[in-house]
Structure formats: structure tokens, C-alpha cells
Specification:
heterodimer; A: 555 residues; mainly alpha; Cytochrome C Oxidase, Chain A; two-stranded antiparallel sheet; 4 strands; B: 369 residues; alpha+beta; Immunoglobulin-like; Cytochrome Bc1 Complex, Chain D, domain 2; six-stranded mixed beta sheet; 7 helices; 37% helix; elongated
């Protein structure tokens, strides 16, 4: 493979760093600042979404409800779901980690379109404020999926929801475009696709999903908005519309959307597990290509969310079988990560613990996904608590565990300081206990007969719901510890050098925090970053850690 | 550099995990009921779904046992020890083609097996259910279910009765938003979508009272459409003996017939149906009716239901207003119009139909078989 990336534009030039506070920290063009902005904003929404989740759990402590009115309860879980998907999962994993780490890992000085990057970011908090402002005018009640005709009956806030999600969709689309061009055109010389770190492979597989899938959602949202505001009949069956059309368009986006939230997490896991096992990643090519395979197949399975919607029985079969097929590349990844641990010298750091937790919890979520793909069993558990159980196992047990692993791992790179390992372990233990106690019983509840999105339920399920709620408080407490750890460590964490973990990807070869220009000289790459027995496969990095002046304007 | 051969401990662990796996397979293979994992099973093809569940649960248990067992074992055995030098490395292995081929091929084979098994059960659900049997319609609304039975006038709210061991075809639709019809004990579910008729076919085999649950969010009181046998709240499916069912059916038929309906308040003008001309009716149909009614089966809905065989379809012995499908009753709907769960149809004056037009249309509809 001798594909040498072209490099030009900002990759070649070092502009002087802007000095004013506004240009440096607010309307910054620097991918690292934008990434940190994404991470912080995403964490703020994680807190808000988490508080909404606790309102849900408090309501469910009594089978007859009583804590919230049914309408408020419906608003709370609808905004909880929308927040966690569009304002937490997707922005943190793509705009957040993707921005901070990906350009450095491929040896570039910024993303391809820094201005676009800034616009992507600023659309996101605006959309978030719009989404939460819908509480003021009657928030949407039909869940994060907002199926019409129910969403046509929803209060005024439902239209605000459409606009907010549309806007955050534009933000994702721009980010996807930006990342795709960056990875295609701005890799350092010698950084071929077979030498690219797996985190960048995760971002590379995610970018087209962001670009292509989000457009389908935008169209569906625009139609819903027009029907609600101007009476254009897209979905109302009494006026010739089709409610099932929304489901097709929504899931054509939202199935790839869950891969948008898991492929970057796969990338984080791949980096962390190799570094802390002190071993090359096992089966690099298979892991990289299986990400691409999952992304491609992810477009062809959307109707597995709709087996009860009355689509023709024969049409259901290809969706079922293709969904089963996705289990193969996913399984290959899990096995490869296990093989990476085998024979290693495993450092059980917080980042590694969250990675191990990821493997164990995400595998469970993957298996329950296979259960759901099987049409006959899906007909039983569709729309029950089995679904929230599955989605939380893949998105919390998967994506959120990956986010935590990534934060413990890259925190020293971003701040120059390390987070407390002791409190990191406490966070891990409490989080896994709280998570399991909250979400494992949901599978059983769903299979036994508890539907989702109910404000009151059959009293026979109350005891187990009480237990789940108590475990959810443990989980919240664990996240509180995490945030205290983050805030404390920014100022008071242990100072560490540029490469405390002994990692070999490019971001660890430059100072921490990373300088504005990333690299004084664009490095050349000679091999994979995972061969711990070999010398580092990079050239032209000699001056990065020295005090030599930055060659402004030069290569 | 350490050996790349697995240690003895690894094989001991593998044997233990294998033992757990065998135990899981034996358990799911032989356990007489799938409780406590699923509610008691009450019919066919729910029992077939349970077979698939046993197969998937056993496979999942095997896979998960090995994955978790190995991960935990690796994390403990291969952890960096205090005695290790700080720069100690793991064994230098980054690929093993045999292993990678194996763990790509084996899951692929399992996917083939699972697909075959799932398609088999799928075909039992959708293709192998008896065509005839009891036809019941259920219409959901905000917030409840109503049921229609052959030759029973009107709609019965919140409680459906079925004879045991008789195949049932349930035609499901909705009056307003999307609801769904789930009987956990039967393992069957379909969404109830306005403008569509979804069908569930099954045979209840166990006498009992089973909750009917809505699993698609349908508004403020969605939680009320959550049948609870324990508290007698919400909609209930009562499966009973043939004799008990017949008794209920006749009782209900009489009670429903006595209940006055709004339509009967106005006396219909008698129409001379015998004078109808089918050919004139055909022309009229294309002018007045075909915008909303297809010439297809009942379920082929445009705005109103399909009208092919409207007077001769044994699976739809009743018209949308619950009256038996007779020429006189069809004429009545054409005169009065219809407002109900299937939408709104204009009445005689709104449609600008003369009495003779109605007679012609009924004559034409009677020719559709």
C-alpha cells in the first residue's frame, strides 16, 4: 500500500494562535478547543438527561404513579431519550472525541474545514436549548421516536422538537462531511489506511453514516413540522397520509444512528485495550474492516424496528437475516479484543476497567439485539421494557462505557494532568453495580408483560421496579463521583508527562496539553502504531518535545 | 518473551465454562415450562415462539459464559504484577489466521442455523395458520379497545371472549392514533394503525383470563390500556370452553341487539332494491365511490374499506356499523352515511344520490364476488 495522502491548505501552514479570549475559547477554529467545547456541552446535557432519568425512576417507584402527572411523565421520558441520543451520545463521540483526537492521530494540524467545524459546534448548544425550551410550551410526549399520528396531537413543543432535532442533524451532517474529507485528504505522509489508528477507523466508518442517514431524518422532520404547522398531510391517514412512512424514514436514520454512537466507542476501546495490555491490537485489519462492514450493513436493517407495523411478512425476512449477519463482524471485534488481552501485561487502570466493563456489558446488549432481530420473539417483546433494556445495554453499557474509558485515557493529553485512579475505580465499581441493577431486570419485566412508556403499571411489578430505582440512584452517585473527579483533576490532578501510558499513536508523541499547531513538522509514518517491540514508526518528530521555535508559516 | 501456548489454567477454565454451557443447554432443552423467563403460554403459535426462545437462550448462555469467563480470567491472570519491570510487554502476537477464520466462520454458521430456525417459526406464524375460524375485529381508540363479532350488532368494549381450541383471526385497526394489541400469554402482537388492518392468527389452547396490553404510546392515558388480570383493569381476553363461549355469545347478541343505536333514531325511507340496475350502478360507482373505496378485499383500504365481495365475504359477515352484510343494510349506510372507527362517509344528500341511484349501487355491489 503506497497511498500517500496529499496535504495542503491548513495542514501546511501554522497560523499564529489567536490571543483574545473570545477567539481563543469561544469562537475558536482550533479542532481541539471545539472538541473540548463539544465534550463539556455534551456532559452538561448528560447531567440534564440523567436528572430526567431519575424523575422517571422516582415515578416508577409506585405502580400507581403519583409523583408526576401522566402528561409530564411522558414529556420527561421523551426529552430524556432525545437528549441522550442527539445531545449526548452523538456529539460527544463524534464532535467531541473525533475533534480532539482524530486530526492529531492522522498527523494533521486541523480538520479540513475549521470554519464549518465551528458552525457545527455552535448549532449544537442552540439546538439543545431549543429542545429543553419545549418544556415551556408543552414538550413532545410520544417518546424520542415521535410516531405520528400521536405526534400530530402533541403540544406545541413537538414542533420545537422537530426544529431542534433538525438543527442538531445539520450539525452532525456537517461534522460527518468535515471528518470524511479530513481523513481522506489530510493524513500525514505514509499514514495509509492500513496504518491508521483504529479510533480513526471508527470515525471514518461513522462519517458517511452521519452524512447520509441524517438527511433522511431531516426530510421526515421537515414533513412532520409542515404537517403540524401548515396542515400538509404527510402522515395523517384520514387525509391520505401514511403514518408508517414516518417509521421507515425515522428508522432509516435511527438505526445507523446507534452505529454512529457505537463505532467511535469501538475505536476508543481498540486504542485503550492495546495500550494497557502492552500488546499489539489483535487482528487489526479485521477490526478495521468490520467497522466498515457494520456501517454498510447498518443501512439495510431499519425495518427490524417495525415487525409489528404491518409490513408484509415476506418483506420482514431480509431485515431479520441481515440483522443476524451484523452479529458476525461485531462478534469478530469482541473476540479480537479478548485475544488482545490474552498474554498481555494488563494495567488495570480506570480506562482499562471501563474497557473490560464495555466488553462484558456490550456483549450482553449485542446478544439481546439478536433476540430482538428474530421476528417471532420480537413480536412478543416489541414495545415492552425489553427494548429500553437492550438500548441501555448497548448505549450505556457500550457507548457511555466507551466515553468514560476515553475520558480517563485522554484526560492527561487534554489537560496535562491525570484523573484520580482511586476514584476512577470507585466510579467503575459503583457504576457497573448501579447499571446492572437498573437495567438487567428490565429484560425480564418486558418479557413478562410490562409495556414501555407507561406512567402507571401492574402492581405485581412494583417491588422489582423499586429495587431498580434504588440501583439507579447508585448509578447517579457514581456519575457524581466522576464529575467531582474531573473538576478536581483539571486543577489538582497529578501532573504527568506527554505520554504517561506509554502509548504509541501520534497524539502521545507531542506535548500535553497539545500545542495549537499540533506538530511543528508534519510527521512521516512508517508502520502501525501498535507494535510495542519495535521503535516508533514515525519520522520528523524530533523537535516536537523540545523548546525549538515554532516554524510559523513553514511546513 | 513468554510462551504463546495457552497454560494449563486456561484449559481448566475452558472445561469449567464448557460444563456451565452444557448445563445451560440441558436446562433450556428440558425444562418443562419457560417460566420464570416468560409468562405462562396460552396458545398456538405462542408455543412455537417459546421453542425459538429456548434455542436462543441456550445459545446466548453458552456464548456469554465463554466471553465473560475468558475476559475475567485474562484480566486476572495477565494483569501486570508488582514484580514486573515497568516496561514489561505482553507476548508479541498480532494475528492468527486460523483463529480469525474460525471465529468468523463459526458465528456465520450459527447465523445460518438461527436464520433457518427463525424462518421456520416465522412461517408457522404467518403461513401455516388455518384460514377459517372465528373472525373478530378489534378497534383501538384513545383509550380502550372495542370488539366486533360476526352477527353481533355494534361494538363490545374491553372484554373479548374466545372458545378454546378454535382458530381465531383478529383484524386490528385503530380509530385515532397508533395503538397495539399484545397478549403476553399468546406471544403475539400487532400494531393497530389508523387506515390499516393488521391481522393476527392464533389458536388459544388454555382456558384463562389474559391481559390485553397496548405497547405503542397513544396519549395521556396510554397506561390505562394495560390489562391487569390481578386488578381487572383494562382489556381482558377471556378464553373459555365452547359451551361457556356460546352462552356468552348468545347473551351478548341479544343484549347488543336491544341497545338502540343513534342511526336507528331516524327512520330510513324504503328503497325499492329490486329495481336496481347493476350496469347503471357500475357507472355510478366510478363517479361517487371509487375515490374512497377500492375494488379489492376488505383490508385494502383507501379511505373506506375495499368493497370486493362486500355482500359475499364470509370473513367479513358484518358491515362497518356492525350490521349483517345484507343489501338492505348496505342501502341503509348509503342513505345515512357512516361516522365511526373506519372514518366518515357522506350520506345520501351529501353524495347527491337519488333512491334509484342507491338501488343501482346495491345491485352493482351485489354482483361483486
Amino acid at each position: 500500500m503506497s497511498v500517500i495522502a496529499e496535504h495542503g491548505g491548513i495542514a501546511e501552514h501554522i497560523h499564529p494562535e489567536p490571543q483574545g479570549f473570545i477567539r481563543k475559547y469561544i469562537f475558536s477554529l482550533d479542532h481541539k478547543i471545539i472538541g473540548i467545547q463539544y465534550l463539556i456541552t455534551g456532559m452538561v446535557f448528560l447531567v440534564l438527561g440523567g436528572l430526567l432519568a431519575e424523575l422517571i425512576r422516582i415515578q416508577l417507584m409506585n405502580a400507581n404513579g403519583g409523583f408526576l402527572t401522566p402528561d409530564v411523565y411522558d414529556e420527561v421520558y421523551s426529552i430524556h431519550g432525545s437528549t441522550m441520543v442527539w445531545l449526548v451520545g452523538i456529539p460527544i463521540l463524534t464532535g467531541g472525541f473525533g475533534n480532539v483526537i482524530m486530526p492529531v492521530q492522522i498527523g494533521a494540524r486541523d480538520v479540513a474545514f475549521p470554519w464549518l467545524n465551528m458552525i457545527s459546534f455552535w448549532l449544537f448548544p442552540i439546538a439543545g436549548l431549543m429542545l429543553f425550551s419545549s418544556f415551556l410550551m408543552g414538550a413532545p410526549v410520544a417518546g424520542w421516536t415521535e410516531y405520528p399520528p400521536m405526534s400530530l396531537q402533541g403540544a406545541a413543543g413537538t414542533s420545537m422538537w422537530c426544529a431542534a432535532i433538525f438543527l442538531v442533524g445539520i450539525s452532525s451532517t456537517l461534522t460527518g462531511m468535515n471528518f470524511l474529507v479530513t481523513i481522506l485528504k489530510m493524513r500525514a505522509p505514509g499514514m495509509t489506511f492500513t496504518r491508521m489508528p483504529l479510533f480513526c477507523w471508527g470515525q471514518f466508518a461513522t462519517a458517511p453514516l452521519l452524512m447520509i442517514a441524517t438527511t433522511a431524518l431531516a426530510a421526515a422532520l421537515a414533513a412532520l413540522f409542515m404537517e403540524r404547522q401548515f396542515g400538509v398531510p404527510f402522515y395523517d391517514p384520514t387525509r391520505g397520509g401514511s403514518p408508517v412512512m414516518w417509521q421507515h424514514m425515522f428508522w432509516f436514520y435511527s438505526h445507523p444512528a446507534v452505529y454512529i454512537m457505537i463505532l467511535p466507542a469501538f475505536g476508543i476501546i481498540s486504542e485503550v485495550i492495546s495500550v494497557f495490555s502492552r500488546k499489539p491490537i489483535f487482528g487489526y485489519r479485521l477490526i478495521a474492516f468490520s467497522s466498515a462492514a457494520i456501517a454498510l450493513a447498518g443501512f439495510m436493517v431499519w425495518a427490524h424496528h417495525m415487525f409489528t407495523s404491518g409490513i408484509a411478512p415476506y418483506m420482514q425476512l431480509p431485515f431479520m437475516i441481515l440483522t443476524f449477519v451484523i452479529a458476525v463482524p461485531t462478534g469478530v471485534k469482541i473476540f479480537s479484543w479478548m485475544a488482545t488481552m490474552w498474554g498481555g501485561k494488563i494495567h488495570l487502570t480506570s480506562a482499562m476497567l471501563f474497557t473490560i466493563g464495555f466488553l462484558i456489558l456490550f456483549t450482553f446488549g449485542g446478544i439481546s439485539g439478536v433476540f430482538l432481530a428474530a421476528i417471532p420473539f420480537d413480536l412478543h417483546v416489541h414495545g415492552t421494557y425489553f427494548i429500553p433494556a437492550h438500548i441501555h445495554y448497548v448505549l450505556v453499557g457500550g457507548s457511555v462505557m466507551g466515553i468514560f474509558a476515553g475520558i480517563y485515557y485522554w484526560f492527561p493529553k487534554i489537560t496535562g494532568r491525570q484523573m484520580s485512579e482511586f476514584w476512577g475505580r470507585v466510579h467503575f465499581v459503583l457504576f457497573v453495580i448501579g447499571f446492572t441493577g437498573t437495567f438487567l431486570p428490565m429484560h425480564w419485566l418486558g418479557a413478562m408483560g410490562m409495556p414501555r412508556r407507561v406512567a402507571t403499571y401492574d402492581p405485581q411489578f412494583q417491588t422489582i421496579n423499586d429495587v431498580m430505582s434504588i440501583f439507579s440512584f447508585v448509578m447517579t452517585f457514581a456519575i457524581l463521583i466522576f464529575f467531582i473527579n474531573v473538576i478536581f483533576s483539571i486543577r489538582n490532578g497529578k501532573k504527568v508527562g506527554h505520554n504517561p501510558w506509554g502509548a504509541r499513536t501520534l497524539e502521545w508523541q507531542i506535548p500535553s496539553p497539545m500545542p495549537y499547531y499540533n506538530f511543528k513538522h508534519i510527521p512521516s509514518v512508517y508502520g502501525l502504531p501498535y507494535d510495542f517491540t519495535e521503535p516508533l514508526p514515525y519520522a520528523h518528530l524530533e523537535e516536537e518535545l523540545t523548546d525549538s521555535p515554532v516554524p510559523v508559516g513553514a511546513h | 518473551m513468554e510462551s504463546t501456548k495457552p497454560s494449563r489454567g486456561f484449559w481448566v477454565l475452558t472445561a469449567i465454562l464448557g460444563g456451565i454451557s452444557v448445563a445451560a443447554i440441558v436446562y433450556f432443552w428440558t425444562t418443562p415450562t419457560v417460566q420464570p423467563w416468560l409468562p405462562p403460554e396460552g396458545g398456538h403459535p405462542g408455543n412455537e415462539v417459546d421453542k425459538l426462545f429456548r434455542f436462543m437462550a441456550a445459545s446466548a448462555a453458552v456464548l456469554y459464559t465463554f466471553v465473560v469467563g475468558y475476559i475475567v480470567y485474562f484480566a486476572i491472570v495477565f494483569r501486570r504484577r508488582k514484580s514486573d519491570p515497568p516496561d514489561a510487554l505482553g507476548v508479541h502476537v498480532h494475528d492468527n489466521n486460523k483463529l480469525e477464520t474460525a471465529w468468523t466462520i463459526l458465528p456465520s454458521l450459527f447465523v445460518v442455523l438461527l436464520s433457518i430456525f427463525s424462518v421456520k417459526i416465522w412461517s408457522v406464524l404467518y403461513l401455516q395458520q388455518p384460514a377459517n375460524g372465528l373472525v373478530v375485529e378489534s378497534i383501538a381508540h384513545q383509550w380502550g379497545y372495542v370488539f366486533r363479532y360476526p352477527n353481533v350488532k355494534g361494538e363490545i368494549p374491553e372484554e373479548m371472549h374466545l372458545p378454546v381450541n378454535v382458530p381465531v383471526t383478529l383484524n386490528l385497526t385503530s380509530r385515532d392514533v397508533i395503538h397495539s394489541f399484545w397478549v403476553p400469554n399468546m406471544r403475539l402482537k400487532a400494531d393497530m394503525i389508523p387506515g390499516m388492518v393488521n391481522v393476527i392468527k392464533f389458536t388459544p389452547t388454555r382456558i384463562g383470563r389474559y391481559p390485553i396490553i397496548c405497547t405503542e404510546f397513544c396519549g395521556t392515558l396510554h397506561s390505562r390500556m394495560n390489562g391487569m388480570v390481578s386488578t381487572e383493569n383494562g382489556a381482558i381476553m377471556v378464553v373459555e370452553s365452547e359451551a361457556a363461549y356460546q352462552a356468552w355469545y348468545h347473551r351478548t347478541q341479544i343484549a347488543q341487539a336491544r341497545a338502540p343505536s343513534a342511526a336507528e333514531a331516524t327512520e330510513a325511507t324504503a328503497i325499492a332494491l329490486a329495481s336496481g340496475s347493476a350496469s347503471a350502478g357500475k357507472t355510478l360507482f366510478s363517479q361517487k365511490c371509487s375515490a374512497c373505496h377500492a375494488l379489492g378485499p376488505f383490508s385494502q383500504r383507501v379511505v373506506g374499506p375495499g368493497l370486493m365481495g362486500v355482500l359475499h365475504d364470509p370473513s367479513h359477515p358484518n358491515l362497518v356499523d356492525g350490521d349483517p352484510a345484507t343489501p338492505a343494510n348496505v342501502a341503509k349506510i348509503l342513505q345515512r352515511g357512516f361516522t365511526g372507527s373506519y372514518g366518515t362517509m357522506p350520506n345520501q344528500s351529501e353524495n347527491a344520490l337519488s333512491n334509484q341511484d342507491i338501488a343501482n349501487l346495491v345491485a352493482y355491489l351485489n354482483t361483486l364476488k
